[in-house]
Design a protein that fits this description.
52% helix; 5 helices; five-stranded antiparallel beta sheet
Length: 216
């Protein structure tokens, strides 16, 4: 009887041990699966967020390139109409409805940096010289249009980015430098970024290469 009882007890212990081992193995498999699934989900979400950011960056590049093309076309038109007076140049800017749709303001400087046309307020003509401004000097040096670093506009007081386009005559002489301002507070340029969210608490911001915040 004792032998039979011991055998029964041993079988019970073995059964309990087997059940515990099976439970441990099952738990280990479940934990490993959850860990791998979580890592895979993190990778998928990360890839999705990166794709969204890449698409937003590409769209902003396209916007800037489109605005540069508009100014370049205007520069080519002015190059073929050299000899315009400041009044005629001002009237030409005011008559371009597309410029008002793409920029909050468009200005023109002569070769010395003097403001000779200002689409938003002609009263500012002659009151400002941009010859010492980085965007003017860099455009003259490069002999082509550029997108400036952000700065506070002396004409409007707004934080802006300026797109420039030089105008040359047939002899290669600089006539004007056009500047199209983008208001960094305007919802139109960064409006597409407002819809991008990372979960409920995530947010998106844009910086320049030197760390200046453009959008948050």
């Amino acid at each position: 009887m004792r032998i039979s009882s011991n055998i029964g007890t041993l079988k019970t212990r073995i059964s309990v041990v087997m059940v515990v081992l099976v439970l441990l193995a099952t738990s280990l498999v479940a934990i490993t699966s959850l860990y791998l699934g979580e890592r895979e989900m993190d990778t998928i979400v990360g890839d999705q967020q990166f794709s969204i950011l890449s698409a937003a960056a590409a769209n902003i590049d396209q916007e800037l390139n489109a605005k540069k093309s508009i100014l370049k076309l205007l520069a080519e038109q002015l190059a073929s109409e050299s000899g315009l007076s400041s009044i005629e140049l001002q009237q030409l800017l005011e008559n371009h409805a597309t410029l008002r749709e793409e920029f909050f303001n468009v200005v023109a400087f002569d070769a010395s940096g003097a403001l000779v046309a200002n689409m938003s307020d002609r009263r500012m003509i002659g009151s400002f010289n941009a010859s010492k401004r980085a965007y003017f000097m860099e455009t003259v040096a490069a002999r082509e249009g550029l997108v400036s670093a952000p700065f506070e506009s002396a004409l409007s007081g707004k934080p802006v980015v300026l797109i420039t386009a030089p105008v040359y005559d047939s002899q290669g002489k600089l006539l004007y430098i056009l500047g199209g301002g983008i208001d960094l507070h305007s919802p139109f340029f960064f409006g597409q970024l407002q819809a991008i969210r990372s979960g409920k608490t995530g947010y998106l911001f844009m910086l320049t290469v030197d760390g200046t915040i453009l959008h948050h």
